[in-house]
Design goal:
Layout lengths: L1 E4 L12 H12 L4 E4 L14 E4 L2 E4 L1 H11 L10 H28 L1 H12 L6 H20 L6 H19 L12 H14 L6 H7 L2 H14 L8
Parallel strand pairs: 1-2
Antiparallel strand pairs: 1-3, 3-4
Helix pairs in contact: 1-2, 1-7, 3-4, 3-5, 3-6, 3-7, 6-8, 7-9
Amino acid sequence: MVRLFQVPPAYGLSSGSPFCARIEVFLKLANIPYESVTDADPRKSPKGKVPWIEDGGTVLGDSGFIIEYLTQKYNVELDAGLTDTQRAIAHTAGRMLTETFYWYIVQSRWLEPDNWSSFKRDFLKILPPVIGTLILPMIRKKIRGQINGHGIGLHTRDELWRMCCRDIDVLTTLLGDNDYFFGDKPTTLDGDVYSFLASLVLPPFASPGKDHAKKQAKLMAHCRRMHEQLFPELTFTG
């Protein structure tokens, strides 16, 4: 059985990390049995980050490589009916989510001044007592350096959130009037969009991106549909 090492549930999400949620969602959509390990120590990961999986003698990190491996190993056919053009669209949108949209989530939780105090309080709950209050400022400083190193953190706050709203508009346009992005069944892209969009809109942290997303009725209906299908035990708070 696949063992998924990930961040614990938070804010009505199956995991506090969109990358961890991405793998759990894929496993559920692909009907692959798995065990979730939520006390994962990133230092034991092959890439020093969560998520990672163990599958027999295979240990693998990075959500993209994990999905690629699982698709081949378990003959997953979620995307079997897609055309080459649809596959290209799914790849491009997925890359947007993992390489750009992720940083909007980081901004919302770690760097938005009005959100930081409540997120800090929540994050301290998973850190060792006393030590947590000492290392959290260092973690935040490191994350600020990461978002600046990516480049997106060098934009003004208004510019960053304008970028986020444009990305949300792209997703809304791609979905159109469909229940799922490529027809009447969810594909890998549906799982990816849900994992990242829910990570922005479900936690109780205000942002212009969250406000804009919640105005997109069809996109939010897709998010709710995926959530209730995959995690009926978790209340959808979007």
